[in-house]
């Protein structure tokens, strides 16, 4: 997509309800955009608003600019993903986590983020699929530290990948028991939490 001279480019945050604010109105983006694309560019020209990926220029959504105020301008196609029931997504996620505490963990996340359950489930699923070898320990750590959100689950996985030696991971995969030096790892996590200012909340 080429940006012409008449085009105005604005940076906006994607809201949790998968909308972008522009001149007193909200414009929809596809379900799941909030978890994948925190910041977008808005291009406006000839009464058309284009919401784009700032790194690639790809058009995420396109709308006619409303002259009214306080409106939600929505493309019905942006809600298609919701045809897949939340209950089915929940069951898939619990099976993917494969932990005896997975159900309680997911239900707690669901309760804490009622309006954004789908986004929460989708992000946890993505992280779990990409980091299968770390899921068990990350889930245990989240439960131990009372961290119930998709972002903290992702951050704990990232933290463990950076701080836990590969050799230690192999030992953990071969044993059902937590290693003897888990206290050292717990202290490291405490330091991590302190850096985040205590309990991480979205």
List keywords for this structure.
four-stranded antiparallel β-sheet, 7 strands, three-stranded mixed β-sheet, 202 residues, alpha+beta, elongated
Q: Report the count of strand segments.
A: 7
Task: Give the proportion of residues in helices.
Answer: 40-55%
Percent of sequence in beta strands: 15-25%
Tell me about the biggest sheet? 4 strands, antiparallel
Low-confidence stretches: 1-6, 176-187, 198-202
Task: Write down the Rg.
Answer: 20 Å
Q: Give the helix tally.
A: 8
Strand order of the largest sheet: 1-4-5-6
Q: H/E element string?
A: EEEHEEEEHHHHHHH
Alpha-beta content class: alpha+beta
Shape: elongated
Mean pLDDT: 79
What separation lies between the terminal Cα atoms? 34 Å
Short description:
It is built from 8 helices and 7 strands, in the order E-E-E-H-E-E-E-E-H-H-H-H-H-H-H. The protein is of the alpha+beta class. Helix 2 runs parallel beside helix 4 and helix 5 crosses helix 6 (150-163).
Task: Give structural notes.
With 202 residues, the chain is of the alpha+beta class. The protein contains eight helices and seven strands; from the N terminus they run E-E-E-H-E-E-E-E-H-H-H-H-H-H-H. The strands form two sheets. Strands 1-4-5-6 form a four-stranded antiparallel β-sheet, with no helix packed on it. Strand 2 and strand 3 form a beta hairpin. Helix 4 packs parallel to helix 6 and helix 5 packs across helix 6. The radius of gyration is 20 Å and the shape is elongated.
